[in-house]
Design goal:
448 residues; Pdz3 Domain; six-stranded antiparallel beta sheet; four-stranded antiparallel beta sheet; 47% helix; 20% strand
Length: 448
């Protein structure tokens, strides 16, 4: 329940910030173009708060927070007094109307750059791209070995696990062979090729990732801390000891420690554990306990904790951060339009789309990971809103933009009947898209 309310809260924060910025773009440019703005609304439906500004504009927050709008003086919606004719929207030259329509998505792109710039300067804490591959997976067959550090993907250097995962996820949509440069723990660099062209078409990205089998490597098998009074401490284990074997079975990583303790202790709680300390091999006899720790379900434990993963903070100075923010925004814009194109042609699955349910869950997760992560999340959602609104679908900004471009070509506005038909088509397309993304999220929730 706490997760539910957290998701709702951070969804409202996300939509409140991004919708306000989007609508402010329309408002600000409309005012600069001499158009009278009657209402600036964050949300739809009945107003829960409103006031009239000195400029006569009504500012309000409405009850349904899934969007917003800017209502301008428009002759199509009622009689316009003669003294206000010059401030009426449809009386403006077509180039001004185009600027007003483009301002919303444009301000979303500005917000994206600003949020990424601030994120890069604050520094986004992350893990180093030290990976492993599931046995028999595509990554394992391609040559990825436990402890490999990814240096570059398709020629672009990567410094963190998240950037590596993003680059791989985007490449999975193309399903073309992906070159990797990795360095093993001994310092030897190798060139690998992931044969993504062998993946079947029209699959969700999470299924592709499962088939690929590329994962963040678990921590080393080291007892970072040994809890006083617990079995490991009583047997003489010390913090920093490297666990070599449990009951004669080798321990390649910390994940194997827990697995072997649970497996062997279920047969006999008395475990023969060999550790390495200061270059010496030390055998220990540890008697595991079946107990619950910190409210978790009871299991066999010996009272040690894992070492942290190698950290890799992504941080730049102001100028480099601005360059990276601009480059990242452009890269994500092209990738988003590319993904839309692939969905239209059937090369990418529409199961990758998410609704406000998915956005709410991700917003809650990112907020708990820290300000830098939440800023990156806001940037990506803002960019998605910009791209979505630029699609040539009537009722969206892109649909209005299409009308005005047609007007530029033919020299006169479209008829009201043509625009009305376009609005109906747009509503059908929009509600179909909304139904699809809600279905995707509900389906994911039922399967999780």
């Amino acid at each position: 329940m706490t997760s539910f309310f957290g998701s709702v809260f951070w969804l409202l924060v996300t939509l409140g910030v991004l919708v306000t910025f989007h609508e402010f773009g329309h408002y600000w440019v409309a005012r600069r173009c001499g158009v009278k703005v009657l209402r600036f609304s964050v949300g739809f439906g009945k107003a829960v708060w409103k006031r009239i500004g000195r400029d006569g504009c009504e500012y309000q927050i409405a009850a349904i927070p899934l969007g917003g709008y800017v209502k301008m003086l428009d002759a199509r919606e009622g009689v316009v007094p003669p003294q206000l004719q010059a401030q009426e929207f449809t009386a403006q030259p077509v180039w001004k109307r185009i600027l007003i329509v483009l301002a919303g998505p444009g301000f979303n792109l500005i917000f994206t750059v600003a949020a990424l710039w601030l994120m890069f300067m604050l520094g986004r804490p992350d893990a180093a791209p030290i990976v492993t591959a599931k046995p028999q997976s595509m990554a394992a067959v391609a040559g990825v070995q436990p402890g490999d550090r990814i240096l570059s993907i398709d020629g672009r250097a990567v410094a963190t696990w998240s950037d590596s995962l993003d680059a791989v996820a985007n490449a999975l949509l193309d399903r073309t062979p992906l070159p990797l440069t990795v360095r093993d723990p001994d310092g030897t660099q190798r060139q690998l090729l992931l044969p993504l062209d062998r993946l079947p078409p029209d699959q969700p990205i999470d299924r592709y990732l499962t088939t690929l089998g590329l994962e963040l490597a678990p921590p080393r098998p080291v007892a970072a801390t040994v809890l006083a009074g617990k079995p490991a401490a009583l047997a003489g284990m010390q913090g920093g000891d490297r666990i070599l074997s449990i009951d004669g079975k080798p321990v390649p990583d910390y994940e194997a420690v827990g697995k072997l303790v649970r497996q062997d202790a279920a047969v006999s709680p008395k475990l023969a554990i060999v550790v390495e300390r200061n270059g010496r091999t030390i055998p220990l006899e540890v008697v595991a306990r079946y107990e619950s720790l910190q409210g978790q379900p009871a299991e066999w434990v010996i009272g040690i904790s894992a070492p942290p993963l190698e950290a890799a903070t992504l941080r730049y100075g102001p100028l480099r951060a601005l360059h990276e923010a601009l480059a990242g925004t452009w890269r994500n814009v092209t990738q988003t339009f590319g993904m839309i194109g692939k969905m239209l042609t059937g090369e990418a699955s529409t199961k990758n789309l998410s609704s406000v349910i998915g956005i709410a869950q991700t917003a809650n997760d990112m907020a708990h990971m820290g300000l830098a992560w939440f800023l990156q999340f806001l940037a990506m959602v803002s960019l998605s809103l910009a791209v979505l609104n630029l699609l040539p679908i009537p009722v969206l900004d892109g649909g209005h933009l299409l009308y005005y471009l047609i007007e530029l070509v033919k020299g006169s506005p479209l008829s009201e009947q043509a625009m009305a038909i376009g609005q109906y088509i747009g509503l059908v397309l929009l509600f179909s898209l909304m139904g699809l993304v809600f279905y995707n999220d509900i389906h994911r929730l039922l399967l999780s």
